[in-house]
TrEMBL record:
It comes from the Bacteria. The chain crosses the membrane at residues 202-218, 224-241. It holds the Pfam family CSD. Gene3D superfamilies: Nucleic acid-binding proteins. Keywords: Membrane, Transmembrane, Transmembrane helix. The lineage of its organism: Bacteria, Pseudomonadati, Campylobacterota, Epsilonproteobacteria, Campylobacterales. It comes from Sulfurospirillum tamanense. This is Cold shock domain-containing protein. Residues 1-65 form the CSD domain.
């Protein structure tokens, strides 16, 4: 008997075959003649098997792929999937990277999560595993009413690429690998950008301090006014962004 695999759960090691007779046949990986063929098994795969009736329905025995030499293709998700666990039900982890993507926001957890997803897409990952959330407290000077405290939301997850073997898929396994290489290259680029920003900030503050010192050569009231203006402007203009902080290599 021949049929087509209509579903297969790698984590459960079982699935169902739609036989050419129209009946559904349950199968387990141990029912394959050659256990290595499981590595190529996906939805839509053509298989041959022996029918077996059981009290719970029909099952397949002595299963093997009709074309075991056919290339393996993957179906991938349309968006970035997230999971608190090491796996995502129904999906195979094709490439598990050693990079952790972070997302932070003082506005809401959703904004922090969106930042994390944005980071995953930047390094070509379609999944984040072992996702965790935590929050910290930030502070800034108030407008004459003391220090203002606010909550900062944080999400982080390990970047990965997942897929489902499917004869109608359009991605080969090799095309889903390489997150580590892309992440490393981006991290180095962003580190240089951060270093440049900090250097510019140092120069900026040097200019501000020289300007303040210069103002005090003049009359005191002019110096006070000019100092306030310079420091006020410096507060808003001198912040250097840590461009690479959101992408970290797992320890």
């Amino acid at each position: 008997m021949q049929g087509e695999v209509v579903s297969y759960l790698p984590e459960k090691q079982y699935g169902f075959i739609k036989g050419d007779d129209g009946k559904d046949y349950f199968f387990h990986c141990k029912n394959f003649k050659d256990i290595q063929e499981i590595l190529k098994l996906g939805e839509g795969s053509r298989v041959e098997f022996e029918q077996k009736a059981t009290p719970k329905g029909y099952s397949a025995a002595q299963v093997h792929l009709v074309d075991a030499n056919a290339p393996v293709y993957y179906q991938v998700p349309d968006t970035v999937y997230v999971s608190k666990d090491e796996k995502i039900k129904g999906w195979e982890v094709v490439d598990l990277s050693c990079w952790v993507v972070h997302g932070s926001s003082r506005h809401s957890p959703d904004d922090a999560k969106d930042e994390m997803l944005k980071g995953a897409r930047a390094i070509g990952a379609n999944a984040l595993l072992r996702v965790a959330y935590h929050k910290t407290t930030g502070s800034e000077s108030g407008t004459g009413k003391g220090t203002y405290y606010y909550t900062i939301h944080h999400f982080q997850g390990q970047a990965a690429n997942i897929g489902k073997k499917n004869v109608k898929g359009s991605h080969e396994a090799e095309a889903l690998r390489g997150i580590n290489v892309r992440a490393k290259a981006l991290k180095l680029h962003l580190m240089k950008k951060t270093k440049s920003a900090k250097k510019k900030r140092a120069i900026f503050w040097f200019v501000v301090l020289v300007g303040v010192m210069g103002l005090w050569i003049f009359k005191e009231n002019i110096a006070i006014f000019g100092t306030v203006v310079l420091l006020f402007g410096a507060f808003f203009l001198s912040h250097a962004t840590d461009y690479d902080e959101w992408l970290k290599e797992a320890v």
